[in-house]
Amino acid sequence: ATAKALIAKGHSVVLHARNDARAKDAREAVPGAEAVVIGDLSSLAETKALAEAVNKLGTFDCVIHNAAICMGPYQETVDGIPAIVAINSVAPYVLSVLIKRPKRLVFVTSGMHEFGTSSLTDIFWKLRPAGLYEQFSAYGSSKFLLMLLMKAFARMSPDTVSTSLEPGHVPTKMGDPSGTDSMEAAVDLYLSLAEGEDEISKKSGSYFYVGMGELPVFKAVEDVKDQDKLIEIFADFTGVKPQ
To answer: Which family does it belong to (predicted)?
Structure first.
């Protein structure tokens, strides 16, 4: 819906798909898209290749980190980490560092970032058995990491406005088809942050919730030492270091 709305307003939009089949679906769903780049975000190698493909298209005004997984059992990636951390947290880090710096970065988060663990001790699940994995807590934790990233990039890259949004309980395939929040309101918030014309889109480091406006983040997200520590952890794991 957001891609279609941006295209309708005259913007050039590039979509992302996990594989060729999903890319075909994306082209059919949004025929006005400029291009579709392909890469499985659970794979570090494919995520790096995706960034390279994006850079070949030029420099973007805005990059929206919207891809995520939520429900399901513990899954380990080819790189040996939980898929939910790879896709929801590591991939946005890698892409934000490797893609030519846009004017705006938008991180799609969740109010559940308050309900996961805020500890950075074992984010890759090397110390805990998979049997302790709980999907709701794991999802919240992955979004907590994403919020730390948003805050870190807002500090480290003052020329790029980094914001985050919670789209609400909208009826989507990933979420709950019976969601009761307004899809239109969610799209409007996406547009505001992506286009960069409204005042809210200039508030780097801010967190917005559909229908509620700007909200304070979970207190632990403001910890600058943890923001820096997470950047260090991800840089060591991925081999991708901020410039």
So the answer is: Belongs to the short-chain dehydrogenases/reductases (SDR) family.
